[in-house]
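Attaching the record inline, Q. Sequence:
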Amino acid sequence: MESEIGLLLQQITTSNQWSLLDSQLVKIRKRAKEKKAITAEELDSFLKRTPSEELTNYGVFLFKTGSTFIICTNPSYGRARQSEIRANGIINMECNCSDRIERADKFMSSHDYNGGRHHCTVSTHKAPCPAWKPAPTSHLHSWRRGAEKASVR
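Structure, as predicted:
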């Protein structure tokens, strides 16, 4: 991912939330050294032509919604995978968290408003851990309307 867009995308973090491409584009443009206006079409084209495994190895996760994507980026995940590739030539996908993050299951047994309906949506693994996963997209109803068999790339 040596293109300008790829390098800029690796610097953005949205690790616990999914974003629309438009909001990522704003962040990319702010980080661009040359104030060349990167277009939405260039970003979309870059994401479509770059293999999903390569994007994931750089900490970029995509979810297809109809004709576009929502995106979640985790730069520390990408840096850790690239360090593993440089050091060992492969990525070890086993959890390396010294202590996993504990999340309260506050609402699962609650009788409060909407009690019992909300699972924790953030990963219990630390950001650079290979077992880290982005938050599920199932709660993003407004972004998923009209999605054709949406799937994470």
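The chain has one domain: 4-144. The CA atoms of residues 81 and 148 lie 31 Å apart.

More tomorrow.
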